Hints:
Blueprint: H1 22-42, H2 44-49, H3 56-76, H4 80-85, H5 87-100, E1 107-110, E2 113-118, E3 123-124, H6 126-144, H7 146-151, H8 157-172, H9 176-192, H10 197-204, H11 207-216, H12 219-227, H13 240-252, H14 277-313, H15 317-342, H16 360-404, H17 407-412
Antiparallel strand pairs: 1-2, 2-3
Helix pairs in contact: 1-3, 1-14, 3-16, 5-6, 6-9, 6-15, 6-16, 8-9, 9-15, 13-14, 14-15, 14-16, 15-16
Amino acid sequence: MTIFDSSTQAKRRNGPRGRYDLWLLVALIGLASIGVVMVASSSIAVADSQHLGPFYFLRKHLVFLGLGVIAAGLAMRTELKLLEKFAFPLLALAFMLLLAVFVPHFGMRINGAHRWLNLLVTTFQPVEAVKLILVVYVASYLVRHRESVETKFLGLIKPIMVAGFLVGLLLLQPDFGSAVLVITVTIAMVWLGGARPIFLFLMGLPLMPLLYVAATGESYRMKRLTSFLDPWKDPFNDGFQLTQSLMAIGRGEWDGVGLGSSVLKLSYLPEAHTDFIFAVIGEELGLAGVVLVIGLFALAVGRGLYLGLKGVEVGQRFAGYVAFGISLMLAMQAIVSVGVNLGALPTKGLTLPLISYGGSSMVLTCAMAGVLLRATFEITRALDARQMTTRMPAAVAVADANAAVSPREAEAA
């Protein structure tokens, strides 16, 4: 009979323990904090021009951020297996939400686009929920059909087709920016799930003509695609947004003109508190502020991708793929938003995650962040369990060796 010595016995109270990734949490809180400050600064002129009071948008932003924090807290306490279990019902809900925007009186048409639902007390943009639902569905598919995805061309058809149908509904709204985001993240997730690049290339070929027609089918989209190449050719019409954005960023130089001292936000820069808030950051905080914001996004995305890889390695595939998907969604949206503000990409209606003013976008982005943090919790719990299994045999061996030594031999030693 083996007797464990108290000094060598492995002690554990509650088994494997997970933890939320600290660096990821710091990056997310940092971005949200910068968002509060910059929304306060960039929205004053907009609110005054509409006779709403200087801090109207800030107050609403704080309300939505508070709701987002609650949503993130609930997501952080929810086991991912529950999301995996309801992946199909959630996908059905996503299609219903995108179709609901076309229902008279329930769906809202703003600036020629059917993108919002009328919830009486507020409006809701379904695509924000669809982004998270898509990540959950693709992650569950990659877990269930791992071998097929890695070895067969047909294994890619279902997730790409689902993304294709979602893209079709988004183009009908129309929402070209979100459509590109959805298809890009889906392809990236499937690739990280082990799909062969040649299969993805062949699968994406039929989508290229569709995206081309969608991008060039309307005159205003074509103008967006061409005006960013030379915005100074028509700085008071098609190139107005971009030229104002570039002037704002140029004025910031190294350390900015000072918080609250932006000139371009004073009714010159359109959508200063939403789509072009990054330009205000560049003007008021300079290159230092730009580097800080990009650095925080890089930290959040990098930690998410790193821990996603660790999750796949320790068998937490669903958590790992969810971490991949949400990190990619945040990265792609941030890249597009920053690229538009810098004139590197055509103008798209995408906000800067966690920073731009927004209602449903802020709440659902916080919810995505909560799911990402939950994924890191479950991945670190699995890593802790693996470490326990490697420590236990060593502890047992030491205990057996000590037990094999007789008291007389111990005294002689």
